[in-house]
């Protein structure tokens, strides 16, 4: 998923982002509400992890703004106030889930994955295509009985291609889902990742290039 973390405590923001990146998510980080609204207006996020207690522009106002669009991202709200009234208020204003601070990162990850299943069709537990068997829970890839070790980005790109079910996926779509905003849109990182995937998956090649369109798995 493409995720925006909005948290004014720098150490916590980076800790959350790094935890989510371990699960092959593309994560952007901002420290204030105005930046969150600006980023959400230009990037297609699947999920926003939002601190409710932001300075200046309150998290409540941010939530209302970013969910008042046709296809809003899911919102997981974080806050030090964990009373029932606070949780209800957060959900009423548009948040999809509510996690009080302090929290366990394993619970944060579980809630993020649960919201991800709501924002897009859930990937089946096992994907099988063209001799590939991908366990999406363990993030393990096997081709013709051979285990294929992949980096997080390689796995993320492969998963997007598999979920497309044979339809072409553009380089821009892969950048949007597998990388964060720090990536140069004119970089050749998608092409390089595809090359590495082809080499690791071996012959016969199953990732094909459609000139001017994108990539698909046969």
TrEMBL record:
Picking any one GO biological process from the record gives: regulation of DNA-templated transcription
Checking Gene3D superfamilies in the record gives: 3.40.50.2300, 6.10.250.690, Winged helix-like DNA-binding domain superfamily/Winged helix DNA-binding domain
Q: Which residues form the Response regulatory domain?
A: 2-116
Keywords attached to this Swiss-Prot or TrEMBL record, sorted alphabetically, are: DNA-binding, Phosphoprotein
List residues of the OmpR/PhoB-type domain.
124-218
The protein's matches in InterPro entries, at most eight in alphabetical order, are given as: CheY-like_superfamily (IPR011006), OmpR/PhoB-type_DNA-bd (IPR001867), Sig_transdc_resp-reg_receiver (IPR001789), WalR-like (IPR039420), WH-like_DNA-bd_sf (IPR036388)
- DNA-binding stretch(es), residue numbering of this chain: 124-218
Q: Name one Pfam family in it.
A: Response_reg
What GO terms fall under cellular component here?
A: cytosol; protein-DNA complex
Q: Which domain of life is it from?
A: Bacteria
One GO MF term attached to the UniProt entry? transcription cis-regulatory region binding
Instruction: Mark the residues carrying the PTM 4-aspartylphosphate.
Output: 51
Name of this chain's protein: DNA-binding response regulator
Q: Which organism is it from?
A: Candidatus Lumbricidiphila eiseniae
């Amino acid at each position: 998923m493409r995720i925006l973390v909005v948290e004014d405590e720098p150490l916590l923001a980076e800790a959350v982002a790094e935890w989510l990146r371990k699960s092959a998510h593309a994560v952007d980080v901002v420290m204030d509400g105005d930046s969150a609204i600006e980023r959400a207006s230009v990037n297609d996020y699947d999920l926003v992890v939002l601190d409710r207690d932001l300075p200046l522009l309150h998290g409540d106002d941010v939530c209302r703004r970013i969910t008042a669009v046709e296809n809003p991202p899911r919102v997981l709200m974080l806050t030090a106030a964990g009373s029932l009234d606070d949780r209800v208020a957060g959900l009423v204003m548009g948040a999809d889930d509510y996690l009080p601070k302090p929290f366990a990162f394993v619970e944060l990850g579980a809630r993020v994955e649960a919201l991800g299943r709501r924002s897009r069709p859930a990937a089946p537990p096992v994907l099988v295509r063209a001799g590939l068997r991908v366990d999406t829970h363990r993030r393990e890839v096997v081709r013709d009985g051979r285990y294929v070790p992949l980096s997080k980005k390689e796995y993320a790109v492969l998963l997007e291609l598999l979920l497309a079910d044979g339809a072409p996926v553009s380089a821009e779509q892969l950048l949007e889902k597998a990388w964060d905003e720090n990536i140069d849109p004119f970089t050749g990182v998608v092409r390089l990742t595809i090359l590495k995937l082809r080499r690791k998956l071996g012959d016969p090649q199953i990732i094909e290039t459609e000139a001017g369109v994108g990539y698909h798995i046969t």
